[in-house]
Amino acid sequence: MARSRGGVVLVVEDIWKDYEGLPLLRGVSLTVSRGETVCLLGASGSGKSTLLRIIAGLERAERGRVLWDGQDLRGVPVHRRHFGLMFQDYALFPHRSVAQNVAFGLRMQGLPAGEVRARVAEALEQVNMGGFANRRVTDLSGGEQQRVALARALAPRPRLLMLDEPLGALDRALKEELAGELRALLRKTQVPAIYVTHDQDEAFSLADRLILLHNGLVEQSGAPAEVYAAPVSPWAANFLGLSNLLPGQVLALDPLRAKTPIGVFEGVQVEPAAARTLPPLRVGSPVMLLFRPGNARPGGEGENRITGVVEDCVFMGEGFRLRLRLESGHLFTFLLKEPLETGGRVTLSLPKGDVQFLMEPDGAVGREEK
């Protein structure tokens, strides 16, 4: 369940940024509300970290504005923005203790020694590291170092917390554990946060709202469940792990039907919350069909039938993951309740609602949907 939120505090408006003479960000706009965690999700090189650095004041955009509570932050230096920053490499001082690392930013602000000690203790308690104040950071595990870096970001009581791939160097089990702790901490403190990652599972577990970046634009935004249920484009679907995609051509609009390399299928066009407009579907329009993996069943009748050879069928705890090689050569993945024999030939049927017709958004630069 998403946290209750207040009004918008951060507005990023029409940001353009070039890298080595080529456009990296092409008119990106987004908002963050009080108490909200927004995840910037995209492939490596999509401009996520650059956008974060622009918001922080570490880089300048060619065009656009960053506003906090209506104030334009152009010309406001990093230390006066009162934003907390945490990066993947943690940037801890190896020759200093845990407490000294957490206190660094507070001492730079010139706070009295007593207040520094109190805030350091408070921040370490928030990340469950209260007994580690006098330890050297070089004696800590990767997960413990991550907690210290987070405590250092929280100690100045930032009005916005920005995290750039903070869990990227950790193994899967530890990443899941710390993501849970971070989620609980953000909900408890109600500090608005921007979280940058390329890992969709990580983003799903942390975000109140996802913002997908692709080709320098906001491709789609919305709550994680909404984005997963209704990807705006073939790229968005594939990036979210929905890779059962086939090209097709629209044959009819009512009911919605398309011809593909393996036959004719009937499906639906969902209405996702997109940052850019979608062109209207017409007879003859090229489309990409997404076959959602969760509700396929062996046998059945009707047009939505897929035949192939079982390449693999693995028990996954709550069902079986089937990898099916289609007659067209495509390899699809489905989730089944019962196993199928490897090497056997099988026909699956899918409900109409699980065949989604996707189109590429138009090329116009758009604003994020509010």
Name the overall outline.
Answer: globular
Q: Output mean pLDDT.
A: 90
- Oligomeric form of this entry? single chain
Rg: 24 Å
Low-confidence stretches: 363-370
Summarize the biggest pleated sheet. Answer: 6 strands, mixed
CATH class value of the largest domain: Alpha Beta
N/C terminus separation: 19 Å
One letter per element, helices H and strands E, the order comes to: EEEHEEHEHHHEHEHEEHHEEEEEEEEEE
Instruction: Supply the helix-strand structural class.
Output: alpha+beta
Question: Helical percent range?
Answer: 10-25%
Largest sheet, spatial ordering of strands = 6-7-8-3-9-10
Q: What is the total number of structural domains? A: 2
Topology:
Layout: E1 8-19, E2 22-33, E3 37-41, H1 48-56, E4 63-68, E5 71-72, H2 78-81, E6 83-87, H3 98-108, H4 113-126, H5 142-154, E7 160-164, H6 172-189, E8 193-197, H7 200-206, E9 209-214, E10 217-222, H8 224-229, H9 234-239, E11 245-253, E12 256-260, E13 263-266, E14 286-291, E15 297-298, E16 305-315, E17 320-326, E18 331-336, E19 345-349, E20 355-358
Parallel strand pairs: 3-8, 3-9, 6-7, 7-8
Antiparallel strand pairs: 1-2, 1-4, 4-5, 9-10, 11-12, 11-14, 12-13, 14-20, 15-19, 16-17, 16-19, 17-18
Helix pairs in contact: 3-4, 3-5, 4-5
Give a quick set of tags describing it.
disordered C terminus, OB fold (Dihydrolipoamide Acetyltransferase, E2P), alpha+beta, Rossmann fold, 6-stranded mixed sheet, 370 residues, 9 helices, globular
